[in-house]
Amino acid sequence: MKNNTYDIVIIGSGLGGLASGVILAKEGYKVCILEKNNQFGGNLQTFVRDKKIFDTGVHYIGGLAPGENLYHYFKYFGIYDQLKLKKLDENKFDSIVFDNSHIEYPYAQGYDNFVKQLSQYFPNEKKAIRTYVEKIQEICSFFPLYNLSAENSFYPDEILQLNAKAYINSLTSDKTLQGVLAGTNLLYAGIGEKTPFYVHALSVNSYIQSAWRCVNGGSQIAKHLVKEIRALGGKVLKYQEVTEFYIDENKQLKSVVTKEGNNFFAKQFIANIEPKTVVDLIGKQHIRKAYYKRVKAQQNGISAFSLYLVLKPKSIRYKNYNTYYINSPENVWTTQNHTKASWPEAYMFAMSEDAKNKGFADTITAIAYMSFDEVKNWENSFNTVAEENERGQSYDEFKNEKAQVFIKKLAKKLPGLEEAILSIHTSTPLSYRDYIGSYEGSMYGYEKDANQPMKSFLSAKTKIPNLFLTGQSINMHGILGVTISAVITCSEIVGMKYLVDKIKKEVEVDAK
Ligand SMILES: Cc1cc2nc3c(=O)[nH]c(=O)nc-3n(C[C@H](O)[C@H](O)[C@H](O)COP(=O)(O)OP(=O)(O)OC[C@H]3O[C@@H](n4cnc5c(N)ncnc54)[C@H](O)[C@@H]3O)c2cc1C
User: Are residues 195 and 315 in the same domain?
Assistant: First the structure.
């Protein structure tokens, strides 16, 4: 390939990279996105087994009803009207379940409905549940881009340092309710001593507003974003793994080189990849030691083991909601510390509905925490569709053993599951590491810590003036969090007030 020159080169086609690509292409910049895999989208990627589509990293999305935050952003990107979405149950988009109980505690859509549905199970705790939803809204109001506002963000210490576990437990002495309110811990990999309440609030709030499943998978978001970027004259290229940065004598990033030997030049660059990799690509000699060390010292959150089941037709009833299991309400903040015998102490599962047999599920995807240590034996192997390799028989045996243990646990909540399975597929922290490039397969990027709020804060600006970061390590993870990370990153280039006003104006005009 010849040398290529652009206004903006974006490394990585995760949601953060693609959303930044659309925003900047709409501003008239000549954009090029480089992706190492054969599929765009990072965690938005899907795969097919037995003709059934599986999501790898998006099981539901919040805030997509007209007027809500993600609706505005997706409308602006020009993709909202193309998305195939199915609304989850109004009165139960998530259910929280524990061992030794048949009760499914509901999370309902709409703040009043949330209080109404949950207080049926906790009639004496209505006040505590009401205070909880009010606090969530109050906390979210401090994050301007979640409310489509370009105001300067100001986060008082009381917000950044409010610990999620401590706050939730302060609302009620009812241990079961404490466990239920913290029950979607898997959404943000919460840790009792660390996780701030704002991480919980920003993760949960948009789903309480409205909760949606992507019909036929979340890869449609990537597909439509790529289409928009190309329609605006941008390039989105696969099989282009960036392996080298060329920094000039003025400490500017001049070009990036891919494994395939191609050179891409640009005035500005955005990295939508693991920041720890970015500082290695920059090279220690080009940045201050303190910055390098700060990025390298970020604590990556835990990874996951995912189970993908294809079901026999008409064997399991479809649930239009997700299920979060925790072995007991008291353990909700410690399930990452499982032992081999107790794993999994928590899991989440989501179903897809069989289009040919309505009312029945055709697939189940279930996710449980798994640390990288458990797959360390095979850490020197690498396997993706773009670069296929075997990890060996012992790895297959490990995966199979874990799948069987997981299925047994799931079957306690889904009677008849074992007989209903047509085929079993799995992924481990190694899959996430190899496909996404995240450190040790970390699911959601860096841990946020209420005890040291600024330590876990990474700016979109790097110490190289024409290189910016975007994606889940900036701002928050999740479809909403990463979309906002792209707005933050692009606002460094085009200006925050200008960009937010434009998003608001364009969507308002569209609505008329
Ligand atoms: C198991 C799981 C379940 C989840 N479920 C949900 C959910 O239900 N709802 C929700 O909102 N969020 C969910 N998330 C979170 C959400 O999917 C992510 O936060 C989001 O997609 C991350 O986007 P990103 O922009 O950070 O990019 P990433 O998805 O991290 O993508 C980075 C991209 O960069 C590419 N890349 C890496 N290195 C290079 C290189 N050197 N050169 C070129 N390209 C490179 C990768 O191949 C990848 O395509 C889930 C995540 C996981 C892991």
Answer: yes
CATH number at residue 290: 3.50.50.60
pLDDT at 512: 59
Burial classification of residue 123, based on how many CB atoms lie within 10 Å of its CB (0-12 exposed, 13-18 middle, 19 or more buried): exposed
Q: How many domains does the chain have?
A: 2
State whether 434 and 463 are in the same domain: no
User: Are residues 420 and 312 part of one domain?
Assistant: yes
pLDDT in tens, 354-400: 999 999 999 999 999 999 999 999 999 999 988 888 899 999 999 99
**pLDDT tens readout for residues 399-428:** 999 999 999 999 999 999 999 999 999 999
If one residue of 43, 202, 243, 435 were mutated to test the ligand 1 pocket, choosing by the most ligand atoms within 8 A of its CB, it would be 43
pTM of the model: 0.97
Q: Which domain holds residue 118?
A: 86-214+300-441
Q: Cα of 226 to ligand 1 centre, how many Å?
A: 16
CA 219, CA 81: separation in Å to the nearest integer? 15
Per-residue pLDDT reduced to its tens digit, 283-311: 999 999 999 999 999 999 999 999 999 99
Atom of ligand 1 nearest to the CA of 42: 49
- Ligand 1 centre distance from Cα of residue 184 (Å): 19
Quick check: 241 and 382 in contact, CB under 8 A?
no
